[in-house]
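User: What would this chain look like folded?
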Amino acid sequence: MRQSPMLNYPAAEFEARMADAARYGLVCSYGGIEAAMYSTCLEREDFYSYDYSGRRGVADNFFGALCYTLRHFGIDTGRLGCEFGPGIHPHMDIAMLDALRAEFPEMECVNAADLVWNILADKSEAQLADLREAEGINARAVSLGLEGLQPGVTTEMELYKAIARQGYLNGSEHFTYMSLVSGPERALCVDCPASAAVIPDVPGTVIRVEGGAMRA
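Assistant: Here's the prediction, encoded as structure tokens.
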């Protein structure tokens, strides 16, 4: 294991978590290896890459590299844990699931989302400190961004920019994609970007902001 420049705690902690995995590999594009190595502690040999030109990597597309990696580890029968979500999505779509089942007819694809999410939910003290700091930045950013809000005049995009600006001014190194919606017409919109629509001047109007501060 290497010490990633993006890791705020010792690589030994990451290595201890990975020790519970019998085998592991990361499938990505050939061009994405350097970026992936910068943000993880894995070694170069832990990556199984694909290249659309067919000149580099183990395949010319993601699915081919995934199949190669499974066979490389001798996984072609038994159960394969997949991270499903509502309606199978977000982390494995139905087309990919069907293709895997066709490629490995003797293998059973099962939902391992709870296992994955439980591992991700187990945070170290260093990670918890980062989360608390980010939450503090987000709270300040939203509060200060709302100070200039003029219902009936300010647009969703203008409010988005005001909140993002306050986020940076209050210590955020970067922002995740933010969804910002307001009013009853957009209340049920999921992952919707801020629009040019004016925020309604109606008592009780809800403005939903999702996303926020993170480290670069």
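The mean pLDDT is 88. If you want, I can go into more detail on any region.
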